[in-house]
Amino acid sequence: MLWPDGEVVNNNFTNLALLLKSGYNATKACNSGTQVIIHTADADSDANACWFYDGIKAQGVNWDITGLSYYCYWHGSMSNMSSVVADVKSRYGKSVIIAETAYPFTAANADSEANSISSATPCSGYPATWTGQYNNFRDVLAAARTGGAIGVFYWEPTWIATPGNGWDPTNPSSGDGWDNQTLFNWSGVANPAIALFKP
């Protein structure tokens, strides 16, 4: 966060904690009822999650909801994610969300930017199809609930390949490495299974 100012060096969370405290206090000053989420990409490792949250807690940082990212192709099994969710919920006494998850509906690419994930079956049992995407999201939601998470957010559901909407805001011809993981095809039509999804 805001490197180099907020970078954790040699396990020293002091500067990062100052930024997080300022953000928390500013949020609460605007609206005391607003829930503050501190989100890391550590749903794959209980040790990594605890290193981070223990580090900021020791510096007196407060937060309301613990956010974790989970992508099966980067973070491993859903059962492990569920265990991490359960542990951080218990350890910190705070609600937990999966703040990011996604899955491809195709291995094809819609623009000049290489896809972040291009495999036809990025995770075993879930082909890169409309059905595979739906089944993956359904199972991520179930695993997160089993661990005690209160919600799951899909990222980035609408980032279809659109000129001028690429990775580089200074380059209108830049592409989007996420176009095959949206919840819409390249014409903007929603995945029919997701459109009917009932939590």
Describe the structure.
By secondary structure, the protein is of the alpha/beta class. The chain folds into 2 domains: 99 residues, no CATH class; 99 residues, no CATH class. It has 6 helices and 4 strands. The chain has a 4-stranded parallel β-sheet with strand order 1-2-3-4, covered by helices on one side. Helix 2 runs parallel beside helix 4 and helix 4 packs parallel to helix 5. The longest helix is centred in the last third of the chain and has 18 residues. It is globular and about 45 Å long. The two termini are 33 Å apart. The model has no long low-confidence stretch (mean pLDDT 94).
What is the straight-line distance between the termini? 33 Å
Secondary-structure-derived class:
alpha/beta
* Total of DSSP H or I helical runs spanning 4+ residues: 6
How many distinct beta strands? 4
Q: Estimate what percentage of residues fall within beta strands.
A: 5-15%
What does the largest sheet look like?
Answer: 4 strands, parallel
Which percent bin holds the helix content? 25-40%
Strand neighbour order, sheet with most strands: 1-2-3-4
Average of per-residue pLDDT values: 94
Low-confidence stretches: none
Rg estimate, integer Å: 18 Å
Taken from the alpha-carbon principal axes, the silhouette is globular
Q: How would the blueprint of this fold be written?
A:
Blueprint: H1 14-30, E1 37-40, H2 46-58, E2 65-69, H3 72-75, H4 78-92, E3 95-100, H5 130-147, E4 151-152, H6 192-195
Parallel strand pairs: 1-2, 2-3, 3-4
Helix pairs in contact: 2-4, 4-5
